[in-house]
């Protein structure tokens, strides 16, 4: 199976062909995938070199002229390093772009902590007006990329990952999906962690919601889910643990509830290892998730 990033360049190349507003801005990373697009659209495929602040600034400049820029590099170089430009060149000026990241939280452990960005979504939460898409499969990535580019002049962050669920699901760029229904709590699985959550909750009497659009947070879906279950919620996110707990608390402000936020821990893991080893070390593998979810929800009994 191809990866989300494998799907990125072909999808955006087709969008360049289809829509004269679309432009792509790169900072060396991913340029080989756009070689044919550069030949066909030399004025709308721009490589600024290893200059991430310029990367975002150039995208904002294109947006000011009415273009729909798609801006791409690793998450740590797209959100963290040029954060001032994301905040000012896009947000303060009131223009939009589609920021598409790669490497996620720790997709490339050999790159070290400079190439890891578990805090990217939490950082964007400090800004107003961002839509955040976290696909869990290449098919979903294609759908959400198209949705993001077509989203008028909104500011959209699409977080691509090597991690993937076994199959894609029908996503609409807005709502959570109900994958499983139960009565002893609600587990919200974000993007590529759905399969781990489904394995972890097999036989447990819990509702599983699947989130690929995490901002805006689908408060209505969470409120509906807790009506038929214990008002205890576990959030399982492929980035910094607790990133969405405030959004979930706001959604359930009228309901007595408990929330457990699971995700990437704050402690830096200084051994390179593999992606799977990092997943397990952060307690996001199925076995660890089952133990943590069961302990919190008291959901050890099988479903009826």
TrEMBL record:
<dbReference type="InterPro" id="IPR029061">
    <property type="entry name" value="THDP-binding"/>
</dbReference>
<feature type="domain" description="Transketolase-like pyrimidine-binding">
    <location>
        <begin position="2"/>
        <end position="168"/>
    </location>
</feature>
<dbReference type="InterPro" id="IPR051157">
    <property type="entry name" value="PDH/Transketolase"/>
</dbReference>
<dbReference type="InterPro" id="IPR009014">
    <property type="entry name" value="Transketo_C/PFOR_II"/>
</dbReference>
<protein>
    <submittedName>
        <fullName>Transketolase family protein</fullName>
    </submittedName>
</protein>
<dbReference type="Pfam" id="PF02779">
    <property type="entry name" value="Transket_pyr"/>
</dbReference>
<dbReference type="InterPro" id="IPR005475">
    <property type="entry name" value="Transketolase-like_Pyr-bd"/>
</dbReference>
């Amino acid at each position: 199976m191809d990866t989300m990033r494998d799907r990125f360049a072909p999808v955006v190349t087709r969008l360049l062909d289809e829509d004269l507003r679309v432009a792509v801005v790169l900072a060396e990373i991913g340029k080989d995938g756009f070689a044919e697009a550069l030949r066909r659209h030399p004025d709308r495929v721009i490589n600024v070199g290893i200059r991430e602040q310029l990367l975002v600034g150039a995208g904002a400049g294109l947006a000011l002229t009415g273009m729909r820029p798609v801006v791409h590099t690793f998450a740590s170089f797209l959100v963290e390093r040029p954060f001032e430009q994301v905040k000012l060149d896009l947000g303060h000026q009131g223009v939009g772009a589609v920021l598409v990241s790669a490497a996620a939280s720790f997709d490339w452990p050999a790159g070290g902590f400079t190439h890891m960005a578990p805090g990217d979504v939490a950082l964007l939460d400090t800004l107003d007006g961002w839509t955040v898409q976290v696909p869990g499969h290449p098919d979903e990535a294609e759908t959400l990329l198209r949705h993001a580019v077509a989203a008028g002049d909104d500011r959209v962050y699409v977080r691509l990952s090597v991690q993937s669920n076994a199959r894609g699901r029908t996503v609409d760029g807005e709502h959570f999906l109900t994958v499983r229904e139960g009565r002893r709590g609600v587990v919200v699985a974000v993007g590529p962690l759905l399969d781990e959550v489904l394995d972890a909750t097999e036989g447990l009497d819990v509702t599983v919601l699947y989130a690929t659009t995490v901002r805006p947070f689908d408060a209505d879906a969470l409120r509906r889910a807790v009506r038929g279950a214990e008002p205890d919620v576990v959030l399982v996110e492929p980035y910094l643990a607790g990133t969405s707990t405030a959004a979930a608390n706001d959604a359930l402000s009228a309901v007595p509830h408990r929330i457990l936020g699971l995700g990437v821990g704050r402690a830096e893991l200084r051994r390179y290892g593999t992606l799977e080893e990092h997943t397990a070390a952060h307690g996001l593998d199925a076995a660890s998730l089952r133990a943590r979810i069961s302990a919190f929800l008291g959901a050890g009994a099988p479903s009826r």
